[in-house]
Write a structure and sequence with these properties.
The protein is α+β, with helices and mostly antiparallel strands. The protein is built from nine helices and twelve strands. Bound molecules: 2-oxoglutaric acid. The site of 2-oxoglutaric acid (AKG) has 12 residues, from strand 4.
């Protein structure tokens, strides 16, 4: 069933019970936007040089992952998702401890939020429109109780231009139930015009961070540019949301010990002597099969 986004003046009633009373006014405003639209963003969180290092780290991890089975998962033609180790990104600690990221996590997911995933999407020249989708099925806490129990933070590695297949997101669709959709993640094609009618194309610039519910219906678009568009994904859960089981973050002991203690409290990871390559468990299979179907 399609529920239209709540009117602006009704926003506060949709805040999670866990909403942290001491959230800053800026974070509160972003939480309100997130609850209304299913996505919000902070401009200029990091300097350009920091983002350039992050882009380099994503591309290094991509070329390593694409060479081994299960390393890079297809998300449609010329488009992949790679899940990696936190320490593959020189800026991981900066991102995971950025005050806006921690503030959003605390306000929406509660003070015992869990960081469960780090990875990136990368479309290349020739990537096609994806089918409209969400990243996992909704649960009654979300569609019935209107709580957001997980967040995806995205950070672009490049200044996004219209020819780089920008992310398109259908505002307000995070509350739709979707129980009768294919894999509970892919709305039927006869509904696509409705998503297109409320969709917004996103053109983030280097340094911006967005925060969305992965349930907000979205798609990557056609990418004719020769410039790849890697985008970092940091996934966070409320306790009990269960997405950590789909991932396998690991860090070496020296890295773990050097992490800020507060980050240690939130990172769901194994501490290992030697990092082993991740074989991904969270595969949105429909993005490959559905891409072939139209
Ligand atoms: O192109 C993007 O930024 C997002 C792609 C996407 O939604 C996905 O692969 O699940």
């Amino acid at each position: 069933m399609f529920l239209p986004p709540p009117p602006r003046n009704a926003l506060w009633q949709h805040f999670p019970r866990a909403m942290n009373a001491i959230a800053s006014p800026e974070v509160s405003e972003h939480v309100a936007t997130l609850y209304r639209d299913g996505i919000t963003a902070l401009k200029g969180a990091f300097p350009r040089e920091w983002v350039e290092r992050c882009r380099e780290d994503m591309m290094t991890a991509f070329w390593e992952a694409i060479q081994r089975p299960g390393g890079a998962v297809g998300r449609g033609p010329r488009r992949w998702y790679v899940e990696t180790h936190p320490q593959a990104f020189r800026g991981f600690v900066d991102l995971a401890t950025h005050p806006w990221v921690t503030g959003m996590c605390e306000a929406v997911l509660g003070e015992k939020y869990e960081l469960v995933e780090i990875g990136f999407d990368v479309p290349f020249q020739g990537a096609k429109y994806q089918p409209w989708h969400r990243d996992f099925p909704s649960t009654p806490e979300s569609f019935r109780d209107r709580r957001i129990t997980s967040l995806a933070f995205n950070l672009t590695g490049v200044d996004v231009t219209p020819d780089m297949g920008p992310l398109e997101i259908a505002n307000g669709t995070q509350w739709e139930e979707g129980s009768d959709w294919k894999q509970k993640m892919f709305p039927p094609q006869d509904q696509w015009p409705r998503y297109a009618s409320v969709a917004v194309r996103k053109y983030p610039q280097a340094g911006d961070i967005s925060c969305r519910s992965a349930l907000t219906v979205h798609r990557g678009t056609e990418h004719p540019s020769p410039i790849a568009r890697p985008v970092l994904v940091l996934g966070a859960d409320a306790p009990g949301a269960g997405h950590a089981a789909l991932h396998d973050m690991m860090v070496t002991r020296d890295y773990y010990e050097a992490m800020p203690p507060k980050l240690r409290e939130h990172l769901v990871c194994r501490v290992v002597d030697t990092l082993v390559p991740i074989t991904q468990k969270h595969d949105i299979e429909g993005l490959v099969s559905e891409a072939r179907a139209y």
